[in-house]
Structures are given as structure tokens and as C-alpha cells.
Amino acid sequence: MKKRERFIWIIICAFLLVFSGVSFFGPNLLAYRANSETKEYLDRFDYLFQFLLENYVDEVPVKTLYEGALKGMFESLDDPHSYYLTASDMKDMNDTTTGRFGGVGLYISKPAPGSTNTDPLDKFVQIVSPIEDTPAYRAGVHAGDYITKIEEESVEDLSIDEVVDKLRGAPGTDVHVSILRGKGIEFGITLTRAIIEIPTVKEAMLPGNIGYLRIIQFTPFTAERVKEAIKYFESNSYTSLIIDVRGNPGGLLDSVAEIGDYFLSSGPIVSTKSRIHRENEVFNATRSVLVPESLPIAVLIDKGSASAAEILAGALKDTNRATLIGETSYGKGSVQKVMGFHDGGIKLTIARYYTPNDINIDKIGIAPDREVKEPELSDEEIESLGKMLKENLVSDFIKNHPEVKDIDQQNFINNLKKDGIVLKTRIIKKLIRNEYNRHLDIPPVYDLDFDIILQEAVRMLQAGEIKGK
Q1: How far is the C-alpha of 394 from the C-alpha of 380, rounded, in Å?
Q2: Are residues 20 and 129 in the same domain?
Q3: How confident is the model at residue 196 (pLDDT cuts 50, 70, 90)?
């Protein structure tokens, strides 16, 4: 009997030894047990979590408290690009990745609560850019606008996730938003949600055999669409190229790296740096290019050009492959990874990207080689523009004059000026053109009449001021 008991104890001790080895020497638990400070805080959290469940005046679902704690933990990072995703959020994220979801068509940003930023506008939701050919775009929402209210509810205390939840919904339903533009133009618009299909690329030929390539966003399909556009330019004997990434909010890193390889024959396109070794990566160009290096290229950027759009612009600028024209870009130089977590997920900044010259442009942006932007409006002009937007004057004009004949347009402008509108005629005509184009099923790919940044790019290419390598 003693031999049997001894044998049993040997088996038990061997099992405990193996189990303790896994517990103490597994990489995750090793890090946890080695950090007594971490354990102390986790113990405090566990105590407070149980205390709230048992003592709060109303009964709180465990899941509600749990998800609130996770959201608060991510908000403490002070990074608007890192956040916890509920099961619903994860579904929306997957919908976005596949390119189809119900919503209004806006890319938005808002600093996390407690952010150290001091800009009073940070309490609102900044519109990075509207998605082209969507309800928000057709309603005249612009990059740089702010959403102040949704259905008369202030967005000041809403997280970015909560704002997204309120804007998305079933196609065909309406959502009313209040918009702040510039120094003090406020107006409300009602947007009818629709199935949003994220576009990628548009192309056209400009006068003087100039290829015009507009990259709207970097998705899994963008690289192939760019390749198709280049073939189109070749079939039309293009001699120079304009790449327009204005209002492009970014997208997939692999996509922009592949596109950058179409233009560069050697060296880094972009690199990522992280404290996680496996996330440190350099995307190098291969020898073959789709666009001859002798071909002159201009890249158009503005404050709505972000993330992957800035990677492409930065790569072509640092390698002297293109001339950048427009305004300083948005300044998002970080890389996020989306990972599943139980029934939800997380979106976490895991690295920063660097241009070929080893520059990170986060919160700085990329400056153009040639700055071109619309002239700033005077206080009187801002007041006039606000009046026109609040009273829907341009929208009503288009509804009553859908063909926009020259005589009708001139009469409209004359009447506006009689009523005290002090905007320049060119600005009013541009507003009319934009409003007219938004009502088209297939709006023009470009507007060479009123787009002064595009005009400058065409002029510089035709004058030979931009050259290939």
C-alpha cells in the first residue's frame, strides 16, 4: 500500500512540476508575474469592478461595466486611432474593409477625452473628408468641417465610436447633423443614409497629353485599379501625369506600398518602426516600374490627404520623383492593426511609418513643394457664405434651374449682390458648379475651370517646370 501511495504522490508531483513550468515560464505569464506593479493595479481593478457591481444604486450588467472599462483604458492612451471595438463595431469595421456599409459617407476624427490638445474645436468631430459620390459629399460637406450635433444632441461628450454608431444605419433612413465651417458658419443638413461603396480610382486625360489619376482611397482593389488607369494613359499616349490624393483619408499599407513600386525602381518606399520587432518592416521598390522614370509627375495634396495618401506623396517627394502641389497634408503617421478580441476587437496603433528620408510626419503633415490654396475669405465674405448656406440659396437655384444656363446664373449672381452678398463672382460660380456636379449620377472626374490647384499643376507641366528623373 505504501508503494502504491508513493507512486501516486510521484505522479502528482510530476504533474504539478509540469504545470508550474508552464505557468511560470510561459511568455505572457512570465511578464505578468515579473511585474509586481502590474499585479497590484490589476488587483485594485478587480476589487473596484466587483465593488461597483455589488454596491451601485442600480444593477449594472457585467458586460456594460466591462466594455466601459475597456473603452476607458484605450481612451487613456490619448490616441484617437486606438480604441476598443464592440461586436457591433467589429461588424462595422469588417463592412468598411469589404467596401460596403450603410451610412452617410464620412471619414471623421475626434481626440480622445482628456487629450492634451487645447484647440476649442477638439470637442467637436472633425470631418477628415467625405467619401465621393455619397450622401455627405452630395450635400456639400467638406474636409475640415466639424459636426457639432447629431439629431440635436451635442457631440461634445460622445466618443468617436458613438458618433459612428449614430451616423451609420439602415439605407433610406435620415439623420440630421449640424455643421460648423470656418470661423463661424453653422448650418444644418439632413442626410439620407445609403449603401456606401468605397470608390478607389478615377482617371481621365487632360489637355496636353496629361494623364489625371485620382486615388480616392487605398483598399485591397486600389493597386489593380491604378494599374488599369496607367494602361489607359499609355493607350492615350500620355507624356506627363498628375496624381491627385486630395481628400484621400488613407487605407491599407500594403496597397500604397504596391502602388509606390509602380513609380520607383529602388530604395525604400516606406518603413514602419515599432517596439514590437515583427512590426518593423521596410517596403522596398523593385527594379521594374510601370511608369517610366523620365515621365514628369505632379502630386496634388491638401489637408484632407492622410495616412497612406501621405505615404505615397512622401515617397515620391523624398525620392525627387514628383513635385507636390497644394496644401500641407493632414499629418497621420501611425499604423493601426485591427484584432479580434472575444466577441469584439481592438484597433491599436502598433507602429509609426517613415518616409524614405526617415521622416515621420505624425501631427505635422507633408508640406508641398508649391503651395497653392484658395484665398482666405474676409469676415464679410464668411458672413455672406454663411447666409447662402443657411438659406440654401445655391441648392434652391439648382433645383429651379437644373440646366444652369448662363443667363440664369448671371441673374442669380446679380440678385445675390443686390441682396448684400459680397462674395467674388468666381466663388459663387464655383459653388454653383459644385452643387450642380453633386446632383449628377456620374460627376466629372476633374474641374479645370475652378480648381486652381489643378490649374497650377497643368501649367507647370506644360511649361516644363516639372521634370522626370
Answers
A1: 18
A2: no
A3: confident
Q: Could you list the residue range(s) of the whole structural domain that residue 445 is in?
A: 379-454
- pLDDT tens digits for 93-115? 666 555 567 899 998 988 766 55
User: Which residues are within 8 A (CB) of 413 and not within 5 positions of it... i.e. 6 or more apart?
Assistant: 425, 428, 429
Distance CA 103, CA 221 (A): 21
109 torsion bin: left (phi>0), alpha (psi -120 to 50), beta (else): beta
**Can you list the positions of beta strands (E) in 360-407?**
370-371
Q: What are phi and psi of 183, to 5 degrees?
A: -80, -20
CA count, 13 A, side-chain hemisphere, 160:
26
Q: Among 318, 329, 384, 429, which one carries the catalytic annotation? A: 318
Confirm whether 302 is a catalytic residue: no
| Helix, strand, coil tally for the chain in percent (to 5) | 40, 20, 40
235 and 117 co-located in one domain: no
What CATH number has the domain bearing residue 361?
A: 3.90.226.10
369 belongs to the catalytic site: no
Q: Which long-range contacts (CB under 8 A, 24 or more apart) does 438-443 make?
A: 438/137, 438/138, 438/139, 438/140, 439/138, 439/398, 439/402, 443/133
**88 lies in some domain:** no
Q: Which of 255, 305, 307, 384 is catalytic?
A: 307
- Of 332, 347, 429, 430, catalytic: 332
Map residue 190 onto helix, strand or coil: strand
Is 461 part of a structural domain of the chain?
no
Whether residue 161 lies in the annotated active site: no
All cell numbers assigned to 189:
443638413
Identity (one letter) of the amino acid at 456? Answer: E
Residue 242, C-beta contacts closer than 8 angstroms, at least 6 positions apart: 206, 210, 211, 212, 213, 297, 298, 299, 300, 454, 457, 458, 461
Nearest alpha-carbon partner for 351 in 248, 285, 278, 268: 278
Q: What is the pLDDT of residues 211-266, one digit of tens each?
A: 999 999 998 889 999 999 999 999 999 999 999 999 999 989 999 999 999 999 99
Per-residue pLDDT, averaged over 161-185, amounts to: 91
Residue 243 within a domain: yes
Asked if the structure places residue 84 within a domain, the reply is no
Whether the CA torsion 274, 278, 279, 280 is positive or negative: it is positive
> For 29, what's the count of Cα atoms within 13 Å in the CB-facing half-sphere?
8
